[in-house]
Fold these 2 entries.
Entry 1:
Amino acid sequence: MAVGRVHLGPSLRSGGFLVSGLATRPAPPDEGAVREILRGVADPEIPSVSIVDLGMVERLEVGPGGIEVELLPTFVGCPAQDFIRDAVIEALAPLGRPTVVGYSFRVPWTSDRITAAGRANLTAAGFAPPAEPRDVRCPRCGSGVVVRDSYFGPTQCRSLWYCRDCRQPFEAFKPI
Amino acid sequence: MTPTSVMSGLDTPTRSALAGLLLAMADDDFVIGFSDSEWTGIAPILEEDVAMSSIAQDELGHAKVLYELLAGLLDDGRDADALAYDREPEAYRHARLLDHGRGDWATTIARRFLYDTADAARLASIGDGWPPLAELVAKIRREERYHVMHALAWVDRLARAGGEARTRFAAALEALAPDAPTVLAAPEGEAALLEAGILARPMSAAFRGWRTEVFGILGPLGITLALEAATDATRHRATPSDDFRWLWGEFTSVRRSDPGASW
């Protein structure tokens, strides 16, 4: 990504971009291979859902000059941002290419960006995927007889719910 | 790296007005974020302990990026942390509404309700004249929707509860009402911001819309408030309250204990 454009956005944030150096210049990896590597990078709180399936990867450019990854924060103040950025740098380091990873607000991340696989993995991990309140289902028993206890949960992206059928509390991703 | 101030293509008066707007927005979010984080661990119920902590985290996150935008615009060597923590209490530009301490739960909810609705009106007034701010605001508004829903649920609960809950809540609203409109005071250089499209409408229009909304919410609950438009000159106190000085001492204590430390 052109540095000038990068710096037009709030991605100016201190430490928002990390650049890894390189010593050798092997053949450029293809984009599919890079994306496959990013499928192995996850939010530290939801290890079963990759940042690709969360819809955080807005742009990926793989060229002779190196690799550029533009990420979208799920929430503006999400404290996992630096961790995820560092994890992407680390995951791509073995490719031996100059790598630039940054966050931007060029387009807002929305919960609609989570892929079908991402939604399935959220449910498997015990979280209800984002949905309008009438469509929220208990991730354990599938019941729709659920009630929202609170708009806010233990992380910015989750709310607190209770299933009246299996009588268990659960967390749902906020539709945003 | 090319600083935003050079990239922005804004003339000096517009840049100066934009800096004032960013500082006011950042300080508002920063101060209410820190103030409400005081509830962490001691809120009336567990769910609210979690909610107030999450809301405070949102506000501090919004403030952080606003300070980063401001740091890029000012390009004077100060980063977001320096802007947030390295000023004397008199240099903060938070609205008078946020100069009050968090008080009891009724005061906290009254202030959150007044601030969340006013802040939403302010965010809705940001135009697309300066993309970095417009893009950030588009994202922030999606998050703030939850703050407003949370505040409205509590307004309804306290106002309809009757007894001490309603009495305290109504008293808190009345006490805060004179300072609530300061969130929507017209910023210095507003004409330049409107000309550049950084503001899509004057703050006076935002204020009128907000007042109508607040009256529409409180009226059916039998609560009336007097809300008068504020000017930039009266937006913040020249001499901060003791409540704010105490809060400032808290939120700068770690920074002052080891300036420049990295984590």
Entry 2:
Amino acid sequence: MKILKIFLIAFLCLSFSELKADENSDELKSKILKNIRCLICQGQSVYDSESEFASSIKLIVDRKINEGLKEDQIYNFLRGKYGDWVIYNPQLNKNTYVLWLLPLLLFLFGGVIIYKKKISNKKNKI
Amino acid sequence: MKNKLNLFVVIIFLSFCFVIFYKGLNNPNTYSPKIKDKKNIPIFEAKDFNSSSYLNSEKIFEEDIFYIVNIWASWCVPCRTEHPLLMKLSKNHSVKLVGLNYKDSLNNAKNFINEFGNPYSQIIIDNDGTLSIEFGAYGVPETFIIDKNKMIIRKFIGPINQEILEQIKLIIK
């Protein structure tokens, strides 16, 4: 009876761990699909789109996850086929320097203006 | 004076916005990045259209010539308009056409070929569209030129027209 109980517990643990793995791969799949642009209906991610292109990408991503590819490897695969445009979150490279650095530069520029104004206000008060 | 300057700046800014948006109205609302680099053909295995046996990419592109991969389907209306041009192209002996039948029913595809003619030296089946993704395709029809080094050197999205046909002829010359 004891052995049967142990077997039952072990079986349940194993089935739950498998469920957990499935859950993780589903989460990863959704995360990746939400970050891929549908190139047919460009206002939508592949996750939201029902186009033929999106349904094929969903199958490819599923296949790549099952093959054991990591998130970045799947993005790199799609970048290789369609360029950076297909991913919503663009990487920092020579084409995206302006995109990434301009907000930072504007922020610094604004900060300098505010700082200078404050200094001149202080001087005027004195 | 200052008010006039402000008004001038506002007018210049609004005119600039107007020009940008007016130009944008004439642009297509879908963006497709151009291929800059040559890309290797994908390594794959696909079902043969006629025999239902499996063929690998090495076998399909084994000859030392140019290949044209054309993605088509019987349900695709633009594929019908480009088909006569593909038939013309198939008469050129310096190139072989490989058809990739995309998400289609085998019977409909066979009827299509019987009705309009077969320009392809080989047809492979892509039932779920994943093979087209391996080629970097968006949908149907789409055409890829593969050079003698087995590299994809050009891609044409949409149906082939006379102008594209001339471009293809120049490349494979």
